[in-house]
Design brief:
The protein is an alpha/beta fold. It contains 10 helices and 7 strands. It has one domain (5-263): Rossmann fold (3-Layer(aba) Sandwich), CATH 3.40.50.720. The protein has helices at residues 14-25, 37-49, 64-78, 101-128, 149-168, 188-191, 197-203, 213-224, 242-245, 248-263, and strands at residues 5-8, 29-34, 54-58, 83-86, 132-137, 174-181, 235-238. A 7-stranded parallel β-sheet has the order 3-2-1-4-5-6-7, with helices on both faces. α3 (64-78) packs parallel to α4 and α4 runs parallel beside α5.
């Protein structure tokens, strides 16, 4: 990543912070943004202390003017932009029957419209820099279904938007892919889940554990690198086998437990 300029949204913690630190170790210069200025400033200071160049900005990804100013700041500081990681996201834990329109709109705005605006404003700068890569952080909710209606809709939408963008931007030498994390520890989504959320999720994963922000960051780094030069328009699950099993793993465990219980009577 030497000589590369990376823009990461939602970089104030969790996966975004892990991505920032990993890209910094690989020699990249960083543009970091978050709605929480104190958190993203701390991450920028941390990677700069480790020897990387980094700038930060307070950004609401749903506001187009914030994108315009952030990209201009990147151009003025580094003179180029090579990679965009649309990592910022939010969740509304409501089913359809209980969904409030304001929560629906906010979830769609952050998770889907925010990513669209990022690609709209970063892609021309990446084109002018010779091309690059965009990684959109979706979810296993974008491969199947979660109870959270707005979140699921936004992540399916991001998956489709990724494919559309991959075709549109190929002539600019920009690759566009989406990653689909399952349960990842040390993130706000993980910490804010309902009681039993983490353990029940772990039990449904064939690997029998949650993933880490670093593991997600390593996948993002690969997709941003030249080693992934023939990969575009793809969706890649990073979920310990959860989406592949489709509930079969947990079903088989329940079957075996029921069989064992029956044999004791």
């Amino acid at each position: 990543m030497n000589g590369k300029v990376i823009f990461i949204t939602g970089a104030g913690g969790g996966q975004g912070a892990a991505e920032a630190e990993l890209f910094a170790r690989e020699g990249a210069s960083l543009v970091l943004s978050d709605v929480d200025s104190s958190r993203v400033a701390a991450i920028a200071a941390k990677v700069e202390k480790a020897g990387s160049r980094a700038i930060w900005c307070k950004q609401d990804v749903t506001i187009e003017a914030d994108w315009v100013s952030a990209v201009e700041k990147a151009r003025q500081t580094f003179g180029a932009l090579h990679v965009l990681v649309n990592n910022a996201g939010t969740i509304s834990r409501q089913g359809i029957a209980n969904t409030e329109l304001a929560n629906w709109n906010r979830t769609i705005d952050v998770n889907l419209t925010g990513a669209m605006l990022g690609m709209k404003h970063c892609a021309p700068a990446m084109r002018d820099s010779g091309g690059g890569a965009i990684i959109n952080v979706s979810s296993t909710a974008g491969l199947g279904a979660h109870y959270d209606a707005a979140y699921t809709a936004s992540k399916w939408g991001l998956r489709g938007l990724t494919k559309s963008a991959s075709v549109e931007f190929v002539e600019w030498n920009i690759r566009v892919n989406s990653i689909h994390p399952g349960q990842i520890v040390d993130t706000s989504f993980y910490r804010e889940g309902s009681p039993g959320h983490a353990e029940s999720g772990r039990l449904s994963v064939p690997m029998q554990r949650q993933g880490t922000p670093l593991e997600c960051a390593q996948l993002v780094l690969f997709l941003a690198s030249d080693e992934a030069s023939y990969i575009t328009g793809a969706e890649i699950a990073i979920d310990g086998g959860y989406s592949a099993a489709g509930g079969l793993w947990l079903r088989n465990r329940l079957r075996d437990a029921l069989a064992a219980s029956s044999s004791q009577h």
